[in-house]
Amino acid sequence: MLDAINVKVKYKVRGSIVEALRGVSLRLDKPLLVTIMGPSGSGKTTLLKAIAGRVPYEGSIRVMGLEVKDNRREASRLVFYLPVGEVLIGDLTVNESIELASMSNHGYNVGDLLEWLGLSGLGNRRIIELSTGERRRVELAIALIKGQVIILIDEPTVGLDEDNARRVGELLKAASRQGRLIIAATHDPILLEYSDLVYGMRNGLLHKY
Ligand SMILES: Nc1ncnc2c1ncn2[C@@H]1O[C@H](COP(=O)(O)OP(=O)(O)O)[C@@H](O)[C@H]1O
Ligand SMILES: [Mg+2]
């Protein structure tokens, strides 16, 4: 599903060069929940962005056999990238947010999905009226509804208490069982309990955790 070989990403910052990825290889053949653990600045977000085709990279990243940098439009139908922070529009209701995402849908029964995520009663609530945990679950609903087979999630449990973090862990695991390859970047050890595979990231390099 994903085959990354010797991926390097460099950022230019005021004349100097930051090597954010220094030769990352990662091959994942099955729908699993995969966690990439690493300290801040180690390159986790950059790796997700490279797979999503959001930053230029050297080396090769193939998703379902397609080289991402040469096939960005096709790759975006295969890979969904959920960045940290505000991807939701505060003024919309939960239902409106889901409808917006559903335009490209999917195969999910939206009602069932919202129930499964524990959001059933919240359809008419505006995003700004939700807790952080509820918001995160709306984001997951959008990620799932969009239908891409590979879902990249940056810091899925950031800002959540332990109960909500566990809930997200369970949902991600369940989603992987429905045939999605889910790659989460995090430094939250709670997610390890739900992961099929864990990699460590340090100084732009990936290693066995
Ligand atoms: N847009 C950018 N421009 C310049 N340097 C960046 C940019 N994004 C990230 N970096 C640098 O690349 C390295 C890896 O960052 P990042 O991928 O965000 O790590 P993590 O997600 O693990 O915290 C860090 O040294 C960071 O400062
Ligand atoms: Mg990051």
From TrEMBL:
GO MF entry, a single one: transmembrane transporter activity
Domain (ABC transporter) ranges: 2-209
Domain of life: Archaea
Record bears the keyword Nucleotide-binding: yes
Gene3D superfamilies: P-loop containing nucleotide triphosphate hydrolases (3.40.50.300)
Organism field: Caldivirga maquilingensis (strain ATCC 700844 / DSM 13496 / JCM 10307 / IC-167)
Keywords: ATP-binding, Nucleotide-binding
Keyword Nucleotide-binding recorded: yes
Coiled-coil annotated residue ranges, if any: none
GO CC term (a single one): plasma membrane
The protein's name: ABC transporter related
